[in-house]
Design brief:
mainly alpha, 4-stranded antiparallel sheet, globular
């Protein structure tokens, strides 16, 4: 006879499943996760509320009015460099903010371009078979990246530019301008009637060059045949504006600066603060970019170079057509961080009084108005916007150059 009785605590009858054991509510991972997030959210909200109340109480005690109405008030101080019209007697604090933003963008944009060019050259030079070139590039990287950036700014400003000769003994570069301790005096373009045609021709040349480059790339991918897109594009970009210049009767002239007593006359002035900041930012960031480029190139298998040489490509062609395009997927992510650092490091210009955003807006304007919360908030959001836009562009470019598996 089969045994059907099951002893207490013994196995369940065949065909029957045991009910899952009950778990305490606080031991449930999902419940605990939600509970911890709710508690953290309440704590953060309380801290924000307490900080806001404390800030308003301190502002009222100090007699400082809150709000952004101060942006329409007259600033009443001068700015050494402005890309837009600025008048000390009538311009507002809002105008000061725009001046600071534009000055920051100019030094960041030019600095990124210079740092990228120098960084790629030095990074490739570090891998050169020429012993002297390789050691010079190594010395550049190890020297500049181990010195504080602020110190380098001081070196260029006080140790180089301030020691240049005075206006009477300026370095004369002929049609390229003058250089002395008051800055670089460059030729200033004077746009006459019909000059707009030159700009239109330049934009058209850029569009045509871009279209030719896209067509040449698709043609090469389909047939394997290369087209000299670079030289064709260069010829169009230079040739079309030149034709427009001749056709319109040379409407564009240049006001070349001339030697003077107190300062050169004519031309446009590039202040020494801008030069010192730009050179320091570019050379310092280029040292880090050089290491990124070197690491990216070393990350490509040597078999790629051997295959390129087997096909008859020269060293320069191998680097330009085989190695660098593949290394970009390694180079671009850390390169983005260097671009962001360069833009944010431009705020160190306050040490030499270059009128960028932190200096004129978060510095002079804040001291005069006392609107610390508003001005610091605007400055933070501005730098955050710069960083997010730069990251978005670099992420888009990274997706474009990424290797696509078939």
């Amino acid at each position: 006879m089969a045994v059907t009785d099951i002893a207490p605590g013994g196995p369940s009858p065949r065909g029957q499943e045991e009910a899952p054991p009950k778990v305490a509510l606080l031991n449930n991972p999902k419940v605990r996760s939600w509970l911890f997030q709710i508690v953290l959210g309440v704590v953060v909200a309380y801290l924000v509320y307490a900080g806001w109340v404390n800030m308003n109480a301190n502002l009222q005690a100090a007699g400082v009015a809150s709000g952004f109405g101060f942006l329409d008030e007259n600033a009443g101080f001068s700015v050494a460099q402005s890309l837009i019209e600025y008048d000390q007697g009538t311009s507002s604090y809002g105008r000061v903010y725009v001046v600071g933003v534009l000055n920051t963008l100019v030094v960041a944009f030019i600095g990124i371009i210079l740092a990228t060019v120098i960084g790629f050259i030095v990074g490739i030079a570090r891998l050169s078979n020429n012993w002297i070139v390789s050691r010079l590039a190594t010395a550049y990287v190890e020297f500049l990246r181990n010195l504080p950036l602020l110190l380098q700014i001081f070196i260029w400003y006080f140790g180089v530019l301030r020691l240049l000769p005075g206006p009477r003994e300026s370095f004369d570069f002929g049609p390229l301008g003058l250089l002395n301790n008051r800055g670089y005096f460059a030729p200033k373009p004077v746009w006459g009637d019909g000059s707009i045609a030159i700009l239109i021709a330049l934009v058209a040349g850029l569009a045509i060059a871009f279209g030719v480059s896209r067509w040449a790339h698709k043609r090469q991918m389909a047939t394997g045949e290369r087209f000299p897109a670079f030289w064709v594009g260069f010829g169009v970009i230079v040739g079309l504006p030149l034709l427009a210049f001749v056709a319109m009767g040379a409407p564009l002239t240049f006001d070349v600066p001339e030697m003077g007593g107190f300062r050169p006359s004519g031309g446009m002035t590039v202040i020494p603060e801008f030069i010192a900041l730009l050179v320091a930012l570019s050379t310092y960031t280029a040292a880090f970019i050089a290491e990124i480029v070197r690491a990216g190139i070393l990350g490509i298998s040597r078999g790629q170079s051997e295959a390129a040489h087997a096909l008859g490509l020269r060293q320069g062609q191998n680097l330009r057509l085989v190695i660098i395009p593949q290394a970009l997927r390694i180079i671009i992510p850390p390169l983005t961080s260097q671009y962001l650092n360069l833009t944010k490091n431009s705020s160190l210009a306050v040490a030499i009084a270059y009128p960028e955003l932190t200096s004129v807006f978060a510095g002079t304007a804040l001291n005069q108005t006392g609107q610390a919360v508003e001005i610091i908030s605007i400055t933070m959001l501005t730098y955050l916007t710069f960083s997010l836009l730069t990251s978005a562009f670099m992420n888009w470019y990274n997706a474009r150059v990424a290797l696509v598996e078939r």
